[in-house]
């Protein structure tokens, strides 16, 4: 089994990272939607400093922007109240221009992995809509934006992605994660970019985050090293009640083809704030491994949670119980 954390403000010091290694962590993810390899240089150095104390090689995964849609910059945090209205686009919350041709009245718009839900009510211009807040919350910059039922054709790799891939070898990157994989062409483009930058040995993790990825799953398998069941945005692509069935389907297809797969998102979400998980969360981890997952990953639990070491230990201990 491999166990990944996510690098962030609450686990970026060598002493914390060493404790996470001691708890069983084998690698860490750096989310490049919010930073770059260059701006994260000190964190990366701390990570490898801690890893050197273990005497074992540790993995560094970068999570690209890819075809994922995200909101732009915000001046501080923005509170969104249920029943209120907000402008999406010009004059309000900055949003990618690619989405506006697809917005129609009553279109559901999901922000921050679906934690915040809007409904489009009135078109103001070609680049802005007045939306009603159905489920509010506190929104921060660069969070994901999804529109269920819409298939928006974005480029596989952004210019920022290419800049990060160009220096990946310099920063000892071992794994690269591509969000919102739609078909084998996305993975071929990434593989060619890695080859161009002399990074042929970097493993590719293909994130399944929409129904297009699910539908093309079998064609993806020969072109990546791991399939990732990324339940955040995947759960936005369908009624949430269907997500366990889709996870089981992806796991079954991966087992059929002897393809390694990872499960991620909200594995121990309650431990962002609490020192102990819920019973449902530890059951989720246990069943993820019995479904055949060879890799599990924590995100917010280690990046900005209060208990990154405890969360990693709980992940590893629970997963190991399912292997006995």
Describe what this molecule looks like in 3D.
The chain has helices at residues 14-22, 41-52, 159-166, 184-196, 211-215, 217-220, 231-234, 243-256, 279-290, 300-303, 308-323, and strands at residues 2-6, 27-31, 59-63, 78-80, 85-89, 108-111, 116-125, 128-135, 137-139, 145-146, 175-178, 203-208, 226-230, 261-264, 295-297. With 324 residues, the protein is α/β, with parallel strands linked by helices. The strands form 3 sheets. It has an 8-stranded parallel barrel with strand order 1-2-3-11-12-13-14-15, surrounded by 4 helices. Strands 5-8-7-6-10 form a 5-stranded antiparallel sheet, with no helix packed on it. A two-stranded antiparallel sheet has the order 4-9. Strand 1 (2-6), helix 1 (14-22) and strand 2 (27-31) form a beta-alpha-beta unit.
Number of DSSP helices?
Answer: 11
What is the percentage of strand-forming residues?
15-25%
Helix content class? 25-40%
β-strand number: 15
Oligomer: single chain
């Amino acid at each position: 089994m491999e166990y990944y954390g996510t690098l962030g403000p609450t686990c970026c010091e060598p002493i914390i990272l060493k404790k996470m290694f001691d708890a069983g962590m084998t690698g860490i993810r750096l989310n490049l939607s919010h930073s770059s390899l260059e701006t994260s240089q000190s964190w990366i150095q701390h990570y490898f400093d801690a890893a050197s104390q273990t005497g074992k090689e540790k993995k560094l995964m970068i999570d690209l922007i890819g075809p994922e849609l995200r909101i732009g910059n915000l001046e501080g945090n923005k509170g969104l109240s249920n029943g209120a209205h907000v402008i999406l686009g010009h004059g309000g919350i900055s949003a990618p221009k690619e989405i506006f041709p697809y917005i129609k009245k009553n279109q559901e718009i999901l922000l921050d992995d679906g934690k915040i839900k809007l409904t489009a009510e009135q078109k103001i211009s070609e680049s802005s809509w007045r939306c009603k807040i159905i489920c509010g919350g506190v929104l921060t910059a660069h969070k994901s934006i999804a529109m269920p039922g819409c298939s928006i054709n974005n480029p596989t790799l952004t210019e920022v992605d290419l800049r990060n891939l160009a220096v990946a070898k310099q920063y000892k990157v071992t794994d690269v994660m591509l969000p919102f994989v739609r078909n084998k062409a996305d993975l071929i483009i990434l593989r060619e970019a890695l080859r161009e930058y002399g990074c042929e040995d970097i493993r590719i993790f293909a994130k399944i985050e929409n129904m297009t990825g699910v539908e093309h799953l079998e064609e993806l398998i020969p072109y990546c090293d791991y399939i990732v069941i990324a339940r955040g945005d995947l759960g936005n692509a369908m009624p949430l009640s269907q997500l366990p069935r889709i996870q089981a389907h992806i796991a079954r297809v991966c087992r059929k083809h002897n393809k390694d797969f990872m499960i991620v998102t909200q594995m121990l979400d309650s431990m962002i704030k609490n020192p102990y998980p819920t019973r449902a969360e530890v059951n989720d981890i246990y069943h993820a491994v019995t479904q055949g997952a060879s890799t599990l990953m924590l995100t917010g639990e280690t990046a900005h949670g209060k208990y990154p070491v405890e969360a990693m230990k709980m992940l590893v201990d629970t997963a190991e119980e399912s292997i006995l």
